[in-house]
C-alpha cells in the first residue's frame, strides 16, 4: 500500500503448525526454557512465524563476527514489504532477534560522533541470498535495479531466482519496486554527523560523557532507521519511530532486562540532555542532513515525470509530518520543540513545493510538445508591444533596454526551436546567473533560491 505499511497477511493454522515444527526441529533448540529467557520465548511466540522462519534461514550465531543493527533492520523491512507483513520498530525487532538468537552482545563501533551499534555474535549464513545484496559498513540497501528491471520486468527481490526466499515465480511488487526508476539511485548515505564538543566541566543533572556518547550513537541509528523506512516507502512508520525515540524511549520490562535496551537512555536523561543548547544544536544539524538526504532520494529531479500515486503518497506524508512530530515531543524543552518543528515544517513544505513544481513541469512539458500550441504562443507574443511594456516598467525597475530586448529575442528563439523542458530550464538558469552575477552579495542580500534556512547547515540546499 503506497504511503503506508503493507497490510498483514494472516497465515493459516496449518502454516502455524508447519512453522512451529520447523522452529522446534531446526533453529530454536538453544532456547532452553528457564527463568531468564522465559520472556524471550514468550516474545518469540508473539512474532509473525514467517519472520521467525526467515531469521533462522538467513542468520546464524558465530564467534568473532558482528553485523550493524541497521543492516539487520533493513533486511527485515525488505522482508516485511515483500511478504505484506506489518513491520515493527527497530527496538522491537531487536527484542525479537534476541529472543531467537540468545546471547547476542551489543557493541558500538566506528569513529566518534558517527559510531553505530552492532550485534556481536551473529552473521548472515554463507548460503543465504542476503549475501548477494550490496553492502557497506552501515546498511544493506538496493543500489541498482537488476537488468530485468531496466528492461521493465520488475520482480520483488524474493521472486527472482537469487531472491532471499529463493522463489522463482513473480510476486506482487512492493511500492519501492513499482517506483524504483523514479527515485534516487540506491539508498542515500547519511553524511557524517557533527560532534558534540563538551568542555571538561561537569555535565548537569548527573549526566556523564558516556550518556552523550550513547545519545549521539542512538540518534544516528534513529536517523538511519527513518531513512530506511522512507527508502522502502513505508511512510507511516516514521511516526512510530518518532514515538519510540521521544515519547516512549525505554518501556518498562516485566522481567529480566533486555540487553537491547542497554545503551538506550531513559526519558529522564533525554529531557536533561535536550535542555542543553549544544545538544539541541546537534539535533537540529542532524535533522537537516537527514531531511536533505530524503528529499534528494524522493525527488532527485523535479523535472522528471513522477507517477501520480507516488506524488500523492509523498504529499500525504508531508502533510502528516508536523502533527506526527508534535505528538511525540510533548513535554520536552520549548527550544527543542521549536527547533524540531521548524526543521520538519521546512522539510514538509519542501516536499509539497517540489511535488507541486513537478506537477506544473509535466503540464508545461505537454504544452512544449504540442507544435500547434507553440505556434499560437509565438503569434500571441509577436502581437505584444514590448517597447511599450519596457517604457512603463522602467518606472518601477531598472532593467537595461538592451538586456530586455535580448531576453525577448532569446525567449522567442527558444520557443521557436521547440526545445525540451530540460533545455528551457537550462536557459532560465542562465538568465538568472546573467542578471544576478553583477549584483553585490552581502549580509543583507536575500538567500539564494533553494537554500533551506539560515539556521541550517550549508549542505541543506532547499
Give an overview in words.
With 462 residues, this protein is mainly alpha-helical. It has 2 domains: 13-28 and 37-198 and 205-252 and 259-360, no CATH class; 384-436, no CATH class. The protein has 17 helices and 3 strands. A 3-stranded antiparallel β-sheet has the order 1-3-2. The chain is elongated, with a radius of gyration of 27 Å. The chain starts with 12 loop residues before the first helix and ends in a 26-residue tail after the last helix. Residues 1-45, 134-171, 251-260 and 444-462 have low confidence and may be disordered.
Note the main attributes of this structure:
462 residues; mainly alpha; 2 domains; 3-stranded antiparallel sheet; 17 helices; disordered N terminus; disordered C terminus
What does the secondary structure layout of this molecule look like, with pairings?
Layout: H1 13-27, H2 38-46, H3 49-58, E1 59-68, H4 69-83, H5 90-100, E2 105-109, E3 116-124, H6 147-150, H7 175-178, H8 209-231, H9 237-247, H10 267-273, H11 277-298, H12 308-326, H13 334-368, H14 371-382, H15 386-393, H16 401-416, H17 421-436
Antiparallel strand pairs: 1-3, 2-3
Helix pairs in contact: 1-3, 2-5, 4-8, 8-9, 8-11, 11-13, 12-13
Short description:
This protein has 462 residues and is mostly helical.
Rg measurement, Å: 27 Å
Order of helices and strands: HHHEHHEEHHHHHHHHHHHH
**Number of E-state strands:** 3
Which strands sit side by side, in order, in the main sheet? Answer: 1-3-2
- Measured by DSSP, the beta-strand proportion falls in 5-15%
Largest sheet: 3 strands, antiparallel
**Domain tally:** 2
Number of helices: 17
Name the average pLDDT: 73
Shape: elongated
Helix coverage percent of residues?
40-55%
Q: Helix- and strand-based class?
A: mainly alpha
| Terminal Cα span | 29 Å
- Low-confidence runs of at least 5 consecutive residues: 1-45, 134-171, 251-260, 444-462
InterPro entries: DNA-bd_RFX (IPR003150), RFX-like (IPR039779), RFX1-4/6/8-like_BCD (IPR057321), WH-like_DNA-bd_sf (IPR036388), WH_DNA-bd_sf (IPR036390)
Pfam family, one: RFX_DNA_binding
Subcellular location: Nucleus
Protein name: Transcription factor RFX3
Amino acid at each position: 500500500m503506497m504511503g503506508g505499511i503493507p497490510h498483514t497477511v494472516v497465515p493459516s493454522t496449518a502454516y502455524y503448525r508447519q512453522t512451529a515444527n520447523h522452529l522446534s526441529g531446526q533453529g530454536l533448540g538453544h532456547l532452553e526454557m528457564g527463568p531468564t529467557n522465559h520472556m524471550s520465548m514468550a516474545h518469540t511466540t508473539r512474532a509473525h512465524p514467517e519472520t521467525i522462519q526467515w531469521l533462522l534461514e538467513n542468520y546464524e550465531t558465530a564467534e568473532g563476527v558482528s553485523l550493524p543493527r541497521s543492516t539487520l533492520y533493513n533486511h527485515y523491512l525488505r522482508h516485511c514489504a515483500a511478504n505484506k507483513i506489518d513491520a515493527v520498530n527497530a527496538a522491537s525487532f531487536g527484542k525479537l532477534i534476541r529472543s531467537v538468537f540468545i546471547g547476542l552482545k551489543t557493541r558500538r563501533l566506528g569513529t566518534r560522533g558517527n559510531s553505530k551499534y552492532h550485534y556481536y555474535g551473529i552473521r548472515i549464513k554463507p548460503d543465504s541470498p542476503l549475501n548477494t545484496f550490496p553492502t557497506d559498513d552501515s546498511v544493506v540497501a538496493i543500489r541498482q535495479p537488476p537488468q530485468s528491471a531496466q528492461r521493465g520486468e520488475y520482480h520483488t527481490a524474493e521472486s527472482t531466482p537469487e531472491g532471499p526466499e529463493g522463489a522463482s515465480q513473480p510476486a506482487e511488487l512492493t511500492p519501492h519496486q513499482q517506483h524504483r526508476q523514479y527515485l534516487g539511485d540506491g539508498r542515500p548515505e547519511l553524511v557524517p554527523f557533527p560532534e558534540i564538543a563538551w568542555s571538561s566541566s561537569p555535565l548537569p543533572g548527573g549526566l556523564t560523557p558516556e550518556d552523550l556518547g550513547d545519545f549521539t550513537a542512538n540518534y544516528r541509528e534513529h536517523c538511519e532507521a527513518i531513512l530506511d523506512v522512507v527508502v522502502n516507502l513505508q511512510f507511516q512508520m516514521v511516526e512510530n519511530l518518532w514515538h519510540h525515540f521521544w515519547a516512549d524511549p525505554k518501556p518498562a520490562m516485566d522481567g529480566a532486562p533486555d540487553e537491547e535496551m542497554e545503551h538506550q537512555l531513559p526519558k529522564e536523561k533525554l529531557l536533561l540532555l535536550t535542555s542543553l543548547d549544544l545538544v539541541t544544536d546537534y539535533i537540529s544539524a542532524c535533522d537537516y542532513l537527514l531531511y536533505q538526504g530524503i528529499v534528494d532520494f524522493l525527488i532527485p529531479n523535479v523535472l522528471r515525470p513522477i507517477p501520480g500515486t507516488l506524488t500523492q503518497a509523498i504529499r500525504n506524508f508531508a502533510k502528516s509530518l508536523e502533527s506526527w512530530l508534535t505528538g511525540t515531543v510533548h513535554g520536552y524543552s520549548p527550544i527543542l520543540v521549536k527547533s524540531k518543528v521548524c526543521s520538519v515544517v521546512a522539510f514538509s513544505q519542501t516536499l509539497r513545493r517540489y511535488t507541486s513544481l513537478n506537477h506544473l513541469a509535466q503540464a508545461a512539458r505537454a504544452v512544449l510538445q504540442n507544435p500547434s500550441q507553440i505556434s499560437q504562443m509565438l503569434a500571441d507574443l509577436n502581437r505584444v508591444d514590448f517597447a511599450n511594456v519596457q517604457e512603463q516598467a522602467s518606472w518601477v525597475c531598472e532593467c537595461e533596454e538592451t538586456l530586455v530586448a535580448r531576453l525577448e529575442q532569446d525567449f522567442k528563439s527558444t520557443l521557436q526551436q521547440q526545445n525540451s523542458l530540460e533545455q528551457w530550464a537550462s536557459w532560465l538558469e542562465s538568465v538568472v546567473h546573467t542578471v544576478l552575477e553583477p549584483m553585490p552579495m552581502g549580509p543583507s542580500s536575500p538567500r539564494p533560491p533553494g537554500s533551506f534556512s539560515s539556521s541550517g547547515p550549508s549542505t541543506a540546499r532547499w
